[in-house]
# Entry
Amino acid sequence: MRVFLCGVFSVIVLGNLLGHAQTATSKFALKDGDCVVFFGDSITEQKLYTSDVEEFVLTRFPRLKISFVHSGVGGDKVSGGRSGPIDLRLERDVFTYHPTVVTIMLGMNDGYVRPNNPAILATFEDGYRHIVEVIQSKVPGVRLVLIKPSPYDDVTRPAAFPGGYNSVLQNYGEFIGGLGHEKQLQTADLNTPVVAALAKAKDINPALSITLIPDRVHPGTGVHWLMAEAMLKTWEAPAIVTSVALDVTKSQIAMEAMNTRITGLRRDKNSLTWTQDDEALPLPVASSDEDPFLDLVARSSDLVDALDREIVRVKGLPSATYRLAIDDRVVGTFASEELAIGINLALLDTPMREQALLVAFDTERKNDIAKARFGLVEHETDGLSREAADQLYSLELRAVARQRQDAQPVAHRYSLLMIP
# Structure
C-alpha cells in the first residue's frame, strides 16, 4: 500500500502556515566597522586560527564589514624578534591599522622550551604587561583580548622533561588570566581545550593523534579550528547557522525558522518543498572524508555543536525513508525518525557549504597578498618596495571586496521526497 504525506489537503501553501520566522539574536562582540589585529609569534604567523576566525565572521555575519590584519612573526617574544624590537613591532604592525580590537598571543618562545624558571617568567610578565599598557596608551578605547598560549604537545608523546614544557606555558597563561582580570580585559584560553582534545584524540586514534601538532609547537589545520573556537567563544559567537522546524502532523503546517526566511512551502502526496533564504553560511570546512585531521579533531571536541549547527527538523512525517535535495542536488537520505530529531546540514555536501568553501579560498588568496605586503613593509629599504607595498594594498582591498561578495547567502530550493 502506498503511504501518502498526512493531511486532507493535497497542497498547503505558506499562507496557511502556523508559526513564524525569527532572526537569530547574538551578543557577538565584534561589530560593524571593527578592525581586528591579531598580534603574535609564528603560530599567529601561520594565519590559520586567525583565518578561521575571519572566515567564521564572513560566513556567519555576511553583512558586517569587519577588517582583519594578521601580524604574526615567527620567533617573536614579548621583547620582539627578527622583525624588530617590540615597540617597533607595535608601531608598524598594530598601530598603523588604527585597530578597534587587538589580540595578543605570545609565550611559546619566551620559555625557551626549558623547565619553569622564575627569572624567565618574570621577564615574560614584565614584557607582556608592557605590551598591554603601550597598546592601551596609544589606542585608547581599544578592546584587547589576551590569549593564553596554545600548548606544547606533551600529550600524544612523552614530555620533553619532567613536568613538561606545557606546564610552563600554563604558568604563563595563569599570569595572563590574572592580568586580564586586573585590567578588566577579555582573555581567551587556547591551551585547555586543545589539551583536552589531544587526550581524547589519543584515545580514539593514538597513531594519528601525533599529527595534530606535528612538531609539538605549530598546530595543524584541525587544531587551529579548535583555537579559533576558543577565540569565538570568548566573543560569544552563536552556534546556529540556521534552524528550521516543520511539523506536518496537522492539516496546517507549523513552522519555526531562525536566521532564515521560508517561502513557497508546499506539500503534496509524497513530497514537501520550500525555498530558504538564509542569513548565514555554514563553516567553510572540508568533509571528514577530505580532511581526516579535522575529522579527528571534530570527534575529539565540541567544535560542531559550538559553531556549526545548520538544522532542519521535520516532525509528523509518515514512517518511511526520504530523499533530501537542495537545488536538485541530493544531499542525503533519511528515515522519518531522523528527520523528526533533526539533520545538521553543515555536515553534508550542500550548495551552502560549497559557497562557504569559496569564501575560504578567497580568504586564503587575500591573506597571501597581505603576507607579501607585510614582508615588503617589514624589510622596506627603498622607494620601489614602498610602491610595491602600495600596489599590493590595493589588490588586498579588491580581494576583501571579493570575500564579502562571495559570502552573501543566496536562496535555495529544498525538497523532501518519499522513497517508495
Observations:
- The longest strand covers residues 240-247.
- Confidence is low (pLDDT under 50) at residues 1-21.
